[in-house]
Amino acid sequence: MPRHDDVTEIAHLRDQLRRHEHLYYVLDQPEISDAEYDALMLRLKQLEDRHPDLVTSDSPTQRVGGKPREGFVKVRHSSPMLSLDNALNQEEMREFDRRVRDLLKGEPFCYIAELKLDGLSMAAHYRHGRFQQAITRGDGEVGEDVTENARTIRSLPLTVHDRALPAFETRGEAIMTRKVFDRLNAHRSQQELPSFVNPRNAAAGALRALDPNITAERRLEYFTYFLLVDGQFFYPSHWESLQHLKKLGFKVNPHSRQCAGLDDVLEFFRAWQEKRDTLPYDIDGIVVKVDSIRQQQTLGWTSKAPRWAVAFKFPAQQATTVVEDIGVQVGRTGALTPVAFLRPIFVGGVTVSRATLHNEDEIERLGLEIGDSVLIERSGDVIPKVVRVVEPSQHRLRFHMPKHCPICGGDVVREPGEAASRCINTNCPARLKESLLHFAARGVMDIDGLGEVLVDQLVDRGLVHSVADIYSLTLDQLLDLDRMGTKSAQKLLANIDASRGRPLARVLNGLGIPFVGERTAQILAGTFGGVDALLEADAETLQQAEEVGPKVADSIRRFFDEKRNRNLVEALRQAGLTFQQAITPKAAGGPLDGKVFVITGTLPNLSREEAKERIETAGGKVTGSVSKKTTFVLAGADPGSKLDKANSLGVPIIGEAELLEMIPGSKN
Q: Who has the most CB within 10 Å: 138, 419, 497, 585?
């Protein structure tokens, strides 16, 4: 049994450390030195080591600990974390204000204006006063569990006291200050590592680091702006919510204002546009929200953003310099992007030496050639771009897109109607990681465990030079990778082996042929019955397949004409993948003949694949997007934006029961 004196001292030390953490990291009002704080922490650690049964998850000593994880678990948010629409100038801000007034039909209201922090959105969940879980924004619906990393953020309280809120959630922004960012890059420079581009990227990398110790070293901060209970706002106004978050001990940005109307908002915007460089962190505008939660509900949401809030962005910063050369970067999808190499110039707080030119059409539109003086623009953390040519050079040189990939030498193709030129070699080193991720994706070859972190290691360490190389991986090779345990490695190898049995359509989709997705791959597999027939078919023969027009046929033909892609096909054949299937006879009519369906949401009994199979067996067609040609949208629980599109176009919406009624003899 622990001595009573030790129990009392542990409790007292924890209270002291929590108080000093709040004073230092939240209020910026430290009362003791770092050495005094460290001494208190050391004493607490000694006592907890003596009495490990007294260690709790919310103890200040537990902010950093545990082994590095192998990956992040996906978690669904309690309610969507929607992005905000942008207002880029006063006219667009006035239009937002007009829409709010119209929808509220003259009812009095006020705005809350806050600084728009340039960080990473995160939700933090609490239960019975203790921090439980942190989730990144992700796609807004599903994020990644970063609980152990968030625990290291000193401005995020591990305990709060509010009996009225047994369970709640905060939403806010994880950021890195400029001071920490500069120190981090200086350290990386000493280690001859590449520097981070900006604090936001550095913060994102820190929050998603597999080792919580790395996150702790990056010294992130967490500012809150929402308080939710069961995914809904708890207080009747946003301003009250902010005040209560402060009382609970959260770090709330002090630079916010209640605004009686648009004039107050514009004044707040102009003031912080001038003072933004005095802040210790980056902002790229302000966020304006209708204060009343009841009025927010009246205003509602679009499929992507609330109608009651907007991000009012600062104007981009511009400067004039000279384009000294134009090069080409090959992206992860094989797209070749022209890049302007600039005479270095200081703009927007950083020295800029490169700017994106997007594609050949953009260069043509600008009338740009090497040697010209140009106006460049930088907005927030967006890559600088060339706005216009200021003065053509007397010795200018015209840029020409290369015919062969500068990375692998493969053919570069620009499809008719497409803006981008692409390297079509699937195994091009520049696009290999993306090719692997696509190949392993769910719905393609479905290789669970072959995610982004692992793919980066496999390629960077030279273990994989081709998509086919994953079938030659060994247990010893995987165990040599960072944070890869025996159980995980064995499971991955089993999943890779299982993928050899995937049907031909999935293999065709996995090859990454431009314009050949899931639907087209199924059609090609059913029409030609094997890869060999596709290898030999000319463009005219390919167009005999349903829905394959000249554009898709030419793309398929060019893909298989590339020697490197033929080599990939043979390597996958040797690995034992499925390259044949029975040719599907064309359906002779059916009750759904000529009808086009789109499926959205979760059906009561049928999976999407089962519903699709029944529709196609009955002669119908399933597509991925709603258009005027859509006959029905088949909707289940939690439908997405496709339902909104159907309503806007007047497309009939049916449920599973109605679908089955259309197919005689069909049963669940």
A: 138
Amino acid at 662: M
The 10s digit of each residue's pLDDT in 612-643 is 888 888 888 887 778 888 899 999 887 877 88
For the chain, the C-alpha Rg in angstroms (whole number) is 29
- For 4-62, CATH gives 1.10.287.610
Residues 291 and 260 sit within 8 Å (Cβ to Cβ): no
Neighbours of 575 (CB within 10 A): 16
Task: Extract the runs of DSSP E, i.e. beta strands, from 72-178.
Answer: 74-76, 86-87, 111-117, 120-127, 130-136, 142-144, 167-175
Spatial separation of the C-alpha atoms in residues 171 and 133, rounded to whole Å:
12
Cβ atoms of 659 and 604 closer than 8 Å: no
Mean pLDDT of the chain: 86
433 is catalytic: no
Tell me the CA distances in angstroms from 94 to 98, 261, 269, one per residue in order.
6, 11, 13
| Cα 213 off chain centre by | 23
What number is the average pLDDT over the span 390-414? Answer: 92
For the cut 70, the answer to whether the pLDDT of residue 385 exceeds it is yes
Q: Which of 318, 329, 390 is nearest to 357 (CA)?
A: 329
Angle at 223 between CA 220 and CA 225, to 5 degrees: 155
Q: How far is CA 189 from the centre of its chain?
A: 28
Cβ neighbours of residue 418 closer than 8 Å, sequence gap 6 or more:
none
In this prediction, residue 1 carries a pLDDT of 47
CB 189 within 8 A of CB 195: yes
Neighbours of 65 (CB within 10 A): 14
351: burial class by Cβ within 10 Å (0-12, 13-18, 19+)? exposed
Per-residue DSSP letter, 175: E
User: 504-574: what fold?
Assistant: DNA polymerase; domain 1 (1.10.150)
Architecture in CATH of 596-662: 3-Layer(aba) Sandwich (3.40)
Q: Where in the chain is the domain with CATH 1.10.150.20?
A: 447-501, 504-574
Adjacent-strand bridge partners of 135 = 123, 145
DSSP state of 394: T
CATH of domain 86-313: 3.30.470.30
Indicate which residue of 45, 74, 116, 385 is catalytic.
116
pLDDT in tens, 497-551: 999 999 999 999 999 898 898 888 988 998 899 999 999 999 888 988 877 888 8
Paired sense of beta strands 335-347 and 111-117, if any: unpaired
Query: What is the band of 388 on the pLDDT scale with cuts at 50, 70, 90?
Result: very high
